[in-house]
Amino acid sequence: MVQDLSYRIFNHTTLVKTMLKLFYISLFIIGSVMPYSQFIPFLWEHGLDLPLFFSQLFANSISRFFAFDLFISAIAFWVWVYAEGRRLSMLHLWLYPLITLTIGVSASLPFFLWMRESHLEKSVNNDTVTVSSI
């Protein structure tokens, strides 16, 4: 009976982790496609016109609200990536700011969460949970 219960708990936990990883990778794909669905038409029409890009980005109070919110969120995300990545001994931490700068937080955050979950899963499966203090 106890073995059956532990098997059910293990399978439920495995299913939840698998669903969570699927959710994260789905958000990464959506978070990559949706921003570029707006950015690519701008590039086709105007090229990489940075003055126009920034004038449109800060054109009104609502767009400034979202721009400032996103900039602050990106900085907070980078600090957390560095701290959490170091704590878990994750590799290639430079990748997440790069994704943020080339696609956006909408892609880099779910991608980091997916990679973090995968890293934790491998660590537990290998019985080598490496968590260091900062």
Q: What would you note in describing this structure?
A:
The mean pLDDT is 90. The protein has helices spanning 2-46, 50-57, 61-87, 95-102, 105-125. It has one domain. The N and C termini lie far apart (42 Å). 13% of the residues are buried. With 134 residues, the protein is an all-alpha fold.
Summarize the structure.
By secondary structure, the protein is an all-alpha fold. It has helices at residues 2-46, 50-57, 61-87, 95-102, 105-125.
The number of distinct β-strands equals 0
Strand content: under 5%
Helix content: over 70%
- Oligomeric description of these chains: single chain
- N-to-C terminal Cα separation, in Å? 42 Å
How many structurally independent domains? 1
SSE blueprint:
Layout lengths: L1 H45 L3 H8 L3 H27 L7 H8 L2 H21 L9
Tags for this model:
0% strand; 134 residues; elongated; mainly alpha; single chain
